[in-house]
Design a protein that fits this description.
The structure holds 2 protein chains of 2 kinds.
Chain A lengths: L1 H4 L1 H33 L30 H33 L5 H16 L2 H15 L13 E3 L2 E4 L7 E3 L2 E3 L2 E3 L1 H28 L2 H9 L4 H31 L11 H12 L2 H30 L5
Antiparallel strand pairs in A: 1-2, 2-5, 3-4
Chain B lengths: L1 H20 L8 H8 L2 E6 L7 E2 L5 E2 L1 H14 L5 E6 L4 H6 L5 E7 L2 H6 L2 E3 L4 E3 L1 E6 L14 E5 L4 H11 L5 E5 L2 H10 L4 E5 H10 L6 E3 L7 E8 L3 H19 L7 H4 L5 H7 L6 H4 L5 H9 L2 H8 L29
Classes of the chains: A mainly alpha, B alpha/beta.
Chain lengths: 317, 343
């Protein structure tokens, strides 16, 4: 009898029951889906991943051939996702912090500019911004055939081509050969993601700084620190405690938002998965892969940021 | 603590029950469903001039749309009783599989993969197409084999991407595909000069060239690099409806073969040609074999005209696309459009 009276044990039993229910639900859903697919003659399974993909991918980190299997195509897409997400996170953090700090500037012009920036880019849907950047890049840049090199670099409709270890880009045929090329699709996506996410990070930084008691700033001034030093050494470190958790969210958002890339022709994970889905008809499996990858990326990001958060937290001694 | 876990468990149970209750029952006969609904639900392309597009008043037109009208006329006796569901390339098969639509009439290429693995059956061919390329004349390119090093814009979710790669590999060309989700984005990138060429089915190229700012600046290259037999699909597991959709399409093609036009149907009713009598239901009752009435094909032809009329009105000489009949001529006119006999 006392066994049932024990709060802790009863709590556990409820938890286990709830967990079993959830597992049962998932099992029923999965079984029902598979059963329905079978009766409708829809083939399923992950076997297709080892089949040759048969389509080309416009850009990849390690090169991709259409004769390689689907799983390598997915990996190529993941590589492109990670590339834009990592570079995007670094750039958007820098821009966001600058904008957030700028809101505390004594210069009214800088304050106003930062405010205007945030209000504009935060309130226009990201997809529209991506399309706008892409349009600007491909409409107004010259074609490769008309372009003239500038310091050995080409900025054309085919993107930005830079010299690389003495390998100079030259005009050849329809495009530009040699050097390393950053495609306008990548540039548009990166610009869009960085500029959009930075407006959110700016607000997070601003509220973080505003949460630090005013006395801290005044104490720093009394010690003879300059305003910049006070911000860098006194206010920002204390603001980090408030900034990091919502910042993690923005990193996750940036990564997930990169899936809009197919609108501007950048072959990241979702674009590749869509193509694979259409070639093979394995809709459930391809969507499953996308979900699993983003879930993993999000959890990893959270893990890293939480570790950093524990370091930044004020240690009670 | 206790109450929240209880509440959560309850919520779980509720969710679970909801899930179980919403399990789709195996649909009854598609024909019965359509009749009791009083409407045919037809999946079409969001916008492809000549095949399926909606005007400013929301009226749908095109070859794929006309087939839905003919089917509705045959089954329900009224060509206007169609609900059109615009679908993009990615959604189309899922919409058919899940029962959201009765039939998918959306310029879909018949391939082994699709026929064997999607739980769908291809009804027949409504249009024999093939993939081609469009380039700006200023490029001075005369053949697709000169596209080495070119970037080509393409829409995702079609057979097009793979064909492009196959063609490049077979001809040892270095072609970079630029894949966009929306056709407007793909054509936009082509027009802006990001891509040297745009590739899709020849009919789509013609449609695209028609609506381009200056159609004369673009040319369609001579190479047709693939076979793209386009046709409607139905779900597997309903042979009766499969048969009906097949024979409505055949009736439109046979209608042209025997000179049955939208305007002369009623005078042809008195014809003593047994073929015509069978199609129009003035002698033997063919409809009964399909679970329909005698006049099923008469109504279909009355609603849309025969295959030739549908072609010329939507994509041929009476349309802005001005496509040649080519392969889509009847078998006895030098084409390959051939319907089994209504007999």
């Amino acid at each position: 009898m006392t066994f049932w009276r024990n709060q802790k044990i009863r709590g556990w039993i409820y938890q286990i029951a709830a967990l079993l229910l959830v597992a049962l639900c998932v099992a029923i859903l999965a079984d029902n889906t598979l059963e329905n697919m079978r009766t409708r003659g829809i083939q399923s399974g992950f076997g297709f991943l080892s089949q040759p993909a048969g389509f080309d991918i416009s850009e990849s980190l390690f090169g991709f051939e259409s004769t390689q299997p689907y799983w390598k195509a997915f990996l190529t897409g993941l590589g492109n996702t990670l590339k834009v997400a990592l570079i995007g996170i670094i750039l958007t953090t820098i821009l966001g912090v600058l904008l957030g700090v700028g809101r505390f500037s004594q210069n009214i012009l800088i304050r106003g500019l930062c405010l205007t920036y945030v209000e504009i880019f935060r309130n226009v849907p990201l997809l529209l911004q991506l399309l706008m950047w892409y349009l600007l890049l491909v409409e107004f840049l010259p074609t490769a055939r008309e372009a003239e090199p500038f310091l050995g670099m080409f900025l054309t409709k085919a993107g930005l081509t830079l010299p690389w270890f003495g390998d100079m880009p030259v005009k050849a045929g329809f495009g530009i050969k040699g050097g390393i090329n950053v495609s306008p699709e990548f540039l548009a996506l990166l610009l869009g993601l960085v500029i959009y996410t930075a407006s959110y990070i700016a607000e997070i930084v601003r509220s973080g700084i505003a949460s630090v008691p005013r006395g801290q700033h005044e104490a720093a001034m009394a010690l003879g620190l300059s305003r910049a030093q006070a911000m860098r050494l006194i206010q920002l470190p204390q603001a980090l405690r408030v900034i990091i958790p919502p910042l993690t969210n923005q990193y996750l958002n940036l990564t997930k938002n990169s899936s809009l890339a197919v609108a501007v022709g950048y072959p990241e994970l979702v674009s590749i998965a869509n193509t694979s889905l259409n070639q093979t008809g394995r809709a459930v499996e391809c969507i499953g892969v996308i979900m699993a990858v983003y879930l993993t990326l999000s959890l990893l990001t959270s893990l890293l940021m939480n570790a950093y958060n524990r370091r930044a937290a004020i240690k009670e001694r | 603590m206790l109450t929240t876990t209880l509440a959560r468990a309850l919520a779980g149970v509720t969710l679970c029950t909801a899930v179980m209750l919403s399990l789709p029952a195996q649909a009854g006969k598609t024909l019965d469903t359509i009749k009791s609904r009083g409407q045919l639900v037809c999946g079409v392309n969001v916008a492809l001039a000549g095949f399926s597009s909606a005007d400013s008043e929301g009226k749908w037109s095109g070859m794929d749309v006309d087939y839905c009208k003919a089917l509705a006329a045959a089954v329900l006796g009224d060509a206007s009783k169609v609900k059109y569901v615009p679908l993009n390339a990615q959604q189309r098969f899922t919409a058919l599989q899940s029962g959201e639509i009765d039939i998918l009439s959306r310029n879909t290429t018949w391939t082994l993969t699709r026929d064997a693995s999607l739980g769908a059956n291809f009804v027949g061919m409504i249009y024999y197409d093939g993939q081609g390329f469009m380039v700006k004349k200023e490029l001075k390119v005369a053949s697709a084999k000169e596209l080495d090093g070119a970037t080509v814009c393409v829409q995702s979710g079609t057979t097009t991407e793979k064909n492009l790669t196959d063609f490049a590999r077979a001809n040892k060309l270095d072609i970079k595909p630029l894949v966009f989700e929306k056709n407007e984005a793909a054509t936009g990138a082509y027009h802006s000069g990001r891509c040297e060429a745009y590739t899709t089915d020849a009919s789509g190229l013609a449609a695209e060239r028609t609506i381009a700012k200056n159609p004369d600046e673009h040319m369609i290259l001579p190479e047709i690099i693939s076979k793209e037999p386009l046709g409607p699909l139905v779900r597997r597991g309903d042979d009766e409806f499969f048969a009906i959709s097949k024979w409505v399409l055949n009736a439109l093609i046979e209608g042209e073969e025997y000179g049955l036009a939208q305007t002369n149907l009623d005078e042809k009713k008195t014809s003593d040609d047994p073929n015509i009598q069978r199609i129009l239901g003035t002698a033997e009752d063919m409809g009964a074999l399909l679970g329909l009435d005698k006049e099923w094909a008469y109504r279909a032809l009355k609603a849309t005209g025969n295959y030739g009329e549908i072609f010329e009105r939507n994509v041929g000489k009476d349309s802005p696309l001005k496509l040649e009949r080519g392969l889509n001529k009847l078998w006895n006119q030098g084409g390959i459009m051939y319907a089994p006999p209504i007999r």
